[in-house]
């Protein structure tokens, strides 16, 4: 072997040894301890843009029904006060909401930035009226430095504010120029009140869905932080509730600290839902009882501002499967019709739900 080749082999060996030594030293370096906390100050204002895309597929025998939806929302956050223990009172409000959905060929569209569209569809009108009332309202929630949240305040007042408008619309629907509420008989007034209450009860269903979605949204914006310092690779755990296909379900939540670059902290989160195939009743009416069970995961990659602890961006993917069981109440139906031939049988309807969710701080 020539002297030149021997020198080359020695040089390669030195380089390899240096790389190995550097890697060992890097691995032996103590990992940075990070104290994750929400540190917002009075008067701070932020805005979040949320985009959710979902597809729900139901199958029964040889039939398939699809539900596709996309929602875009902008939410404002104001820090109203900070207690001595660091708990922040957050005032939040929806600045805009846009919905584009297709339910088995039926299109539902709503955009709060555009004038309302006249419609005879009671569902589209309910979505429009309730969403407009929510946008006109402000809500508040207390959030601790570790992300623990109190009860949301403000939703209980939304329907109260809608009552005068609902009553006015019902009176207009009567279409009687001589109608005078002041001269109504006791019976007629009671009938009017019953109609108003029935309309409010109908709208309450849509408001409840928005409230559940709002709770989930706040859980995604205000991440739960550990009570200790953490380093890259550390995990911490929490429990949360997701609103899946109009059904609140409990989820086990795992956070994983991926790392920190400059003032940006990266955290992955995994929300695991498993109802163990135990049906949960979600609706009971005169015709039938509807129950569901769901299982699956919600995976998110989050980037956070270390100085404020507030979410900067979250990109999530969801995948759930489950079952919807429809149990027909023939006894109740017999009170309305003697012909039971049209009653649909009990049905097991498999469900798959997939989608994505993006939250981004825009201000």
Keywords:
12-stranded antiparallel beta sheet, single chain, 363 residues, alpha+beta, globular
Summarize the topology:
Layout: H1 3-28, E1 45-60, E2 63-82, E3 88-103, E4 106-111, H2 122-135, E5 139-143, H3 158-174, H4 186-221, E6 235-244, E7 247-261, E8 264-274, E9 280-284, E10 288-305, E11 311-328, H5 330-334, E12 347-361
Antiparallel strand pairs: 1-2, 1-12, 2-3, 3-4, 3-5, 6-7, 7-8, 8-10, 9-10, 10-11, 11-12
Architecture overview:
- The chain has 363 residues and is of the alpha+beta class.
- Helix 2 (122-135) packs across helix 4 and helix 3 (158-174) packs across helix 4 (186-221).
- Helix content is 27%, strand content 43%.
- It has five helices and twelve strands.
- Strands 1, 2, 3, 4, 5, 6, 7, 8, 9, 10, 11 and 12 form a twelve-stranded antiparallel β-sheet that branches.
- It is globular and about 100 Å long.
- A hairpin with a 5-residue loop joins strand 10 (288-305) and strand 11 (311-328).
Unreliable segments (pLDDT under 50, ≥5 consecutive)?
none
Topology, number of strands: 12
How much β-strand is present in the residues? 35-45%
Query: What level of helicity do the residues show?
Result: 25-40%
Number of helices in the DSSP assignment:
5
Global Rg: 28 Å
Largest sheet: 12 strands, antiparallel
**What is the N-to-C order of secondary-structure elements (H for helix, E for strand)?**
HEEEEHEHHEEEEEEHE
Q: Structural class of the helices, strands and pairings? A: alpha+beta
Shape: globular
Average the pLDDT over all residues and give the rounded result.
85
In angstroms, what separates the terminal alpha carbons?
68 Å
């Amino acid at each position: 072997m020539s002297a030149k080749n021997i020198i080359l082999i020695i040089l390669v060996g030195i380089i390899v040894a240096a790389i190995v030594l550097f890697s060992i030293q890097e691995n032996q370096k103590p990992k940075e301890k990070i104290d994750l906390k929400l540190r917002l100050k009075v008067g701070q204002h932020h805005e979040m843009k949320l985009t959710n895309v979902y597809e729900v597929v139901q199958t029964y025998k040889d039939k398939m029904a699809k539900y596709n939806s996309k929602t875009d929302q902008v939410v404002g956050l104001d820090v109203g006060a900070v207690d001595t223990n660091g708990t922040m009172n957050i005032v939040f409000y929806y600045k805009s909401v846009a919905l584009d959905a297709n339910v088995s060929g039926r299109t539902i569209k709503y955009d709060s930035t555009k004038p309302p569209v006249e419609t005879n569809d009671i569902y589209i009108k309910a979505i429009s009226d309730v969403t407009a009332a929510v946008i006109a309202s402000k809500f508040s929630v207390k959030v601790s430095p570790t992300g623990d949240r109190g009860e949301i305040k403000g939703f209980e007042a939304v329907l109260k504010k809608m009552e005068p408008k609902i009553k006015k619309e019902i009176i207009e629907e009567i279409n009687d120029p001589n109608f005078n509420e002041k001269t109504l008989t006791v019976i007629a007034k009671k009938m009017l009140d019953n109609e108003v209450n029935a309309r409010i009860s109908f709208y309450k269903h849509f408001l409840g869905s928005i409230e559940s979605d709002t709770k989930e949204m706040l859980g995604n914006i205000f991440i739960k932080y550990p009570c200790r310092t953490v380093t890259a690779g550390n995990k911490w755990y929490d429990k949360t509730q997701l609103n899946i296909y109009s059904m609140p379900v409990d989820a086990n939540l795992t956070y994983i600290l991926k790392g920190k670059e400059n003032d940006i902290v990266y955290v992955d989160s995994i929300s695991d839902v498993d109802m163990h195939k135990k049906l949960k009743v979600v609706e009971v009416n005169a015709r039938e009882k509807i129950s569901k069970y769901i299982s699956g995961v919600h995976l998110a990659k989050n980037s956070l501002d270390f100085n404020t602890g507030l979410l900067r961006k979250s990109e999530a993917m969801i995948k759930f499967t489950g079952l919807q069981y429809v149990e027909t109440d023939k006894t109740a139906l017999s009170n309305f019709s003697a012909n039971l031939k049209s009653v649909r049988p009990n049905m097991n309807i498999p469900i798959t739900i997939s989608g994505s969710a993006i939250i981004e701080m825009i201000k």
